[in-house]
Amino acid sequence: MKTRQLGKTGPVVSAFGLGCMGMSDMYGPSDRAESLATFDAAVEAGITLIDTGDFYGMGHNEMLIGEALKNHKRDRLVLSVKTGALRDPAGGFLGYDGRPNAIKNFLAYSLKRLGVDHIDIYRPSRLDPDVPIEDTIGAIAEMVQAGYVRHVGLSEVGAETIRRAAKVAPIVDLQIEYSLVSRGVEAEILPTLRELGIGMTAYGVLSRGLISGHWTKDSGKGGRDFRAHSPRFQGENLEANLKLAEALSAVAEAKGVTTAQAAIAWVASRGDDIVPLIGARRRDRLSEALGALDVSLSAEDLAAIEAAVPVQAVAGTRYAEAMMTHLDSERGSR
């Protein structure tokens, strides 16, 4: 497994990370045994960065990972946890809580569910508009001093917020959506990260399956799959976006790789300071994604890929409007 360092002050991790959300939430029913087997396969393949959130399945994901960790050496893995999202019993999102005492409370629960004595990277999942980012990051910094957290991360915040947070404590990485069809970070956020020596963990590298080569008009029907309400997966938007996926598929086939591998390899090619998160919840999807590690893209390959999926060609925003309003990273760019 190749490795990359998260920022100038962060840990060295596997070149790809494992995003575990889909094992518990958001994408419809999942198979518990297959999820655990996928986790094991990922670690055996050399993945060391494990990403979760305390609100994924309302703690279910952390408990699942806690069980999986029993089969592996804890000190070889880097656990990244997002916090702060508030949800109701029906699974709806109620907003975010970045108050210092709330952050410390959420952390205590995460440590217990995961069955660990520290979390390697702890980050607010979104910016709480009612709490200065300095207060939230300051609370996590206190937990670093106390030994419960090793590093501080950020998620889905814009350049100004990144700068403010970095003045409070060393930030190792920003977790944010980045893919061929979600390139807004390139304008201001990515240059800011590089200026400050902060890495990126990129989620949604396949745009939630949209450009994986596996999605069709009939995918995702039934069950509690949030893509049923995602603008990019609706009506004419979906038709237009599947044409982009088809164009990418043609380039990938000519290269001798799968559509998903081409999309993941493109993200990985954007810099050694970027670690793609692979949201696999099945071993076959994990194996396919890991194949992207061996894909080398030439200048001609990159040009062909970007011609197939031009910047801003995607139809629809990445979240529904109600969720987009919570994204500090999207302010002024919609």
UniProtKB/TrEMBL annotation:
A Gene Ontology term for the protein's cellular component: cytoplasm
Stored InterPro entries: Aldo-Keto_reductase, NAD(P)_OxRdtase_dom_sf, NADP_OxRdtase_dom
Domain of life: Bacteria
PROSITE patterns recorded: PROKAR_LIPOPROTEIN
Any one GO molecular-function label of the UniProt entry: oxidoreductase activity
One Pfam entry name: Aldo_ket_red
Keywords: Oxidoreductase
Ranges where the NADP-dependent oxidoreductase domain occurs: 17-308
PANTHER family noted in UniProt: AFLATOXIN B1 ALDEHYDE REDUCTASE, ALDO-KETO REDUCTASE YAKC [NADP(+)]
The protein, known as: Aldo/keto reductase
Species of origin: Caulobacter segnis (strain ATCC 21756 / DSM 7131 / JCM 7823 / NBRC 15250 / LMG 17158 / TK0059) (Mycoplana segnis)
